[in-house]
Prior knowledge:
By secondary structure, this protein is an alpha+beta fold.
Amino acid sequence: MKKNTLRRILCTVLCACLLLNVAALSTSAAAKAKPYVSLSQQPKKDDSDPLQSAVSFFFRNFGFIGFILDPYQFTIINQKPVFQWALGFNDLYDIFPFVMNVYADSVVNEFNYEGKDWRIQLWKGGYGVFLATGGEIGIYNKSEEQELEHYACPASQSDWMYLKYTIYNRGKALFTRPSPYLSGDEGPSWWCPGYKVLSICTDFLSSPRKNVIMDGTIEFKSNKMAQLFLESMK
């Protein structure tokens, strides 16, 4: 057990160093995007913390493979639009996170609605590369005639939905997505990830991660769709 734990910690450090170097050397689309315009009633940023200042500087200048930093909640969130949209989703994708030292609980909900097969998936747990606790909600669909179990990220915004959740660790609220402090972050979406930096998941290596709770809502296209989702969860 001790050897496995040491390997995972080493993997986390190596992956973090690798990805930070790749992001620093690449020209990210997020780096050229307009910064979010802050709303009123924002919490004060702790500019005196050298670590937070360094992380904020990195994201402002380099971006991070489609992600940006919410400086008010010190949380990594996705830039819109994000390149992952073109990749779609299937079961194989849930294998790769373990290479990146991501240990998250996942719930898959599949159902048919309006001639499409839908997959709505939720994640919450520990994200080792970011040394973070976080979660995600993803919405995917495909034609019901398509036999290949690969879902597309909805191209039409009419298939996007309003997603919102708060992540808790040991009863303490870590952050809320969409961010309540950033304009331009609200609105319908097909993917809503968030990772609280330097908030290590307290039961990172256990399964399920009972200390981490996602309290969220999804605004479905109709009552019928919501009912189908609930039935799929059963």
